[in-house]
Amino acid sequence: MTTEQHIAALLENKGTSRWLRRALIELLERDACDAAADAEELAHVMGLRACEALGMKAPRREGTVKRQKTADFTVPVYQIS
After folding, report:
1. Domain range list for the chain
2. Distance CA 14, CA 23 (A)
């Protein structure tokens, strides 16, 4: 399944939350690398929030996307911490 097919399936699925549908549509209008970095940060923060709510120790963060500016565009740099 391609990424486009996966996104289309999520948008068509009645079980997909309205919030996720809106987020997907908005993210598709953005630069793919910037959108991925923002989505990763959101997932990380919400994961921390869930761990706190459940009284769990937060997992170690790995594979974060860092934005690196070049002369003409931003290149994602994957950094394992």
Report:
1. 1-30, 32-81
2. 15
What's the CA gap between 81 and 76, in Å, rounded? 15
CA 56/CA 6 separation, integer angstroms = 32
Helix residue ranges, H only, the chain: 3-12, 18-28, 32-54
- Tens of pLDDT, residue by residue over 25-72, are 999 999 999 999 999 889 888 888 998 899 988 777 765 555 555 455
For residues 42-62, b (16+ Cβ closer than 10 Å) or e, as one string? eeeeeeeeeeeeeeeeeeeee
User: What is the pLDDT, as a whole number, of residue 72?
Assistant: 53
